[in-house]
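ugh ok fine here u go
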Amino acid sequence: MAADLFYFLVFPGLLFVGITGGFLSWFDRKVTARVQFRKGPPVLQPFYDFFKLLLVKETILPKHGSPVTFLLAPVFSVFGATMAGVFILLPLFNITTGFRGDLIVVFYLLTIPSFSYIIGALASGNPLAAVGGSREVKLILSYELTFLLVITGIIMKCGQQFEIDSIIKVQQASSPFIGSVSGVLLFVVAIFCIQAKLALVPFDMPEAETEITEGIFIEYSGTAYAFIKLTKYIMLFILPSLIVAVLLGGFRLDGINILWSMLKVLGIVLLLTLIRNTNPRIRIKQAVRFFIIWMNLIAVIALVLITFGY
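structure:
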């Protein structure tokens, strides 16, 4: 019991993923600033933002809404992201081997933050938040099937293994899955799915500050919004880590491989940052078509190639 609490609250749980995600958020903002010929924030700025919201800013409750549901939604989002992070990072750090089917459990846990945002938006009673929630629902329905096809491809490539630990060991015993044609296709599809899960441009329609003024988060402030910030920090770390685990051979924690493992995660975050800084926001109809037609098509091609050994 004590070990489980340590895993959830300290390492590789809430404290670790929160701090690491904060540094990755700084990296994302710094690269964004450099792309736009700006200096960018100091390294601790994400933590300043979080603690200012947590300890200084007032939490204002919407007048026409459900206060309890409104406040609980960010808590559930942090819980879902943290639990997913624990199940991803335990086998990555070779602490435990996980359990049979943990990859499927992670798939469902990663949906909790998005659904929490929707519930919180609807509980606020704000019409702009409802518009953002509606967009989030449509986005989830478009990319979740695609992400499930990516996971199906991973399971097929490792001989019907459902455990993250087994998937990592299969790659380390031979070569990372990205070294094949089907692996490259799955990686491309997975990157766009992560971009949508993180609601980064071009898939930031649920927030769209220039259209619906932060949409699903329009009524959030203070401590409640701090929890949303924390969830975003955590997701920015655990989603690239999941891709590293299932496609890039996982982490190797010996010698120079430690640096190489860190560079894998940083490389994926850099790619996500460059995508969001070189593309305009698209309409929700375009995003749905992009995933349901093109990304699903690429994922299905990858599945066919896996069947033929490619």
